[in-house]
Design a protein that fits this description.
The chain is α/β, with parallel strands linked by helices. It has a single domain, classed as Alpha-Beta Barrel (TIM Barrel). The chain is built from 13 helices and twelve strands. A twelve-stranded mixed sheet has the order 7-8-9-6-5-4-3-2-1-10-11-12. Strand 2, helix 2 and strand 3 form a beta-alpha-beta unit. The longest helix is centred in the N-terminal third of the chain and has 13 residues. It starts with 11 loop residues before the first strand and ends with a helix. The structure holds S-adenosylmethionine (SAM) and iron/sulfur cluster (2 copies). The site of one iron/sulfur cluster (SF4) has 11 residues, from loops. One iron/sulfur cluster (SF4) binds next to loops.
Length: 341
């Protein structure tokens, strides 16, 4: 097992398969226009598979496909099928905004995808339109139903909590998730990449989220981390038996247990969500490097890792958005929708 400078193992990889998205969530892509990655810069499925295989050979056991909106990548089930066949990979998951899941769930399941995480921040149609510009909760609910019908188990629901936007939605989301037997994950609003409107007053600390839900559902009991000590969510059982996860990336970061890194759709490898730069694996692949060289670069990169971006942000005075728009335009790799959430 390869460990970084803080003894954290190389365990999980998030692969962004596209930087494009059909929504414009205000906490992720609030600007009017974007500089997109050129189409010919995207890794081919052969290249993604090759990089993923190298990671798995070095010890990665969990891969999550993300984006942008991963369901916009043409031929995605083909990539899923290739990755699902990698010997040694224990968990292959995908994070989606759910708006196009109804038509894709069955093909993804047939291709061998293990698990889904579906993002939904509000059950109110007008509020969702205001938050995402184009989304409707009706489509996402259809996606939830299609996921269950296709046989997916262990589905999670991601909700980013913003004080003036969706604090009134938490109870409803818990009830919706319980009705579908899926686990809701409440995520603190982070000042990452494209979160240009981020301000501390809009963050709802995980402790407050739990206290509100405990009051509504008759208490909350903290659960142990279970079999995965690297999982970002802390889990709670509410008084009615519903289990929820809370991801306190902003107020109580968990960098000390972070075994994750990220690959962008054009092959940039980032060892932290907050890292200013990453390694250009596409240049390596297209420059003719063999698998031994590829694994050497990954091994060296991980061994040198000392990132703990979210922890370092905690002490920043007058904390605001991480990166100004001018820098995002100069380097789109700094965007959350490019490096993959
Ligand atoms: N488009 C897909 C989706 O929305 O599920 C996958 C990519 S999205 C970047 C992955 C996750 O990041 C989503 O659950 C989204 O809510 C979360 N996210 C994006 N910006 C965030 C922010 N500023 N703070 C916290 N979570 C954020
Ligand atoms: Fe798109 Fe996901 Fe970002 Fe929303 S959070 S804009 S759905 S990439
Ligand atoms: Fe991991 Fe970086 Fe997130 Fe910390 S900020 S949990 S090191 S990705």
């Amino acid at each position: 097992m390869i460990r970084d400078r803080f003894e954290r193992p190389l365990g999980a990889l998030r692969i962004s398969v596209t930087d494009r998205c059909n929504l414009r969530c205000r906490y992720c892509m609030p600007a009017a226009s974007y500089r997109w990655l050129p189409t010919d810069s995207l890794l081919t499925f052969d290249e993604v598979e090759r990089v993923a295989r190298a990671f798995v050979e070095l010890g990665v056991r969990k891969i999550r496909l993300t984006g942008g909106e991963p369901l916009l990548r043409p031929g995605l089930p083909d990539l899923v099928a290739r990755l699902a066949r990698l010997p040694g990979l224990a968990d292959l998951a995908l994070t989606t905004n759910g708006t196009r899941l109804a038509e894709a769930a069955e093909r993804l399941r047939a291709a061998g995808l293990h698990r889904l995480t579906i993002s939904l921040d509000t059950l109110d149609d007008a509020a969702m339109r205001a938050l995402t510009r184009h989304g409707s909760p009706v489509d996402v609910r259809a996606g939830l139903a299609a996921a269950a019908a296709a046989g997916f188990a262990g589905t999670k629901l991601n909700t980013v909590v913003m004080r003036d936007t969706n604090l009134d939605q938490l109870e409803g989301i818990v009830r919706l998730a319980a009705a579908h037997r899926i686990e809701p994950r409440f995520i603190e609003y982070m000042d990452v990449g494209g979160a240009l409107e981020w301000e501390p007053g809009q963050v709802v600390p995980g402790a407050e989220i739990v206290a509100r839900l405990a009051a509504a559902f008759g208490g909350a009991e903290r659960l142990s981390r279970g079999e995965d000590p690297h999982a970002p969510a802390r889990r709670w059982r509410l008084g009615d038996g519903t289990v929820i996860g809370v991801v306190t990336s902003t107020t109580e970061p968990f960098c000390g247990a972070c075994d994750r890194s990220r690959l962008t759709a054009d092959g940039r490898w980032f060892r932290c969500l907050y890292a200013p730069s990453g390694t250009d694996l596409r240049a390596l692949l297209r420059g003719g490097a063999d698998d031994v060289e590829l694994r050497r670069v990954l091994r060296q990169g991980w061994a040198a890792r000392e990132d703990r971006g979210a922890e370092l942000r905690v002490g920043v005075p007058d904390r605001g958005a991480l990166v100004p728009l001018t820098r995002l335009r100069a380097d789109p790799h700094l965007e959350m929708h490019v490096r993959g959430g």
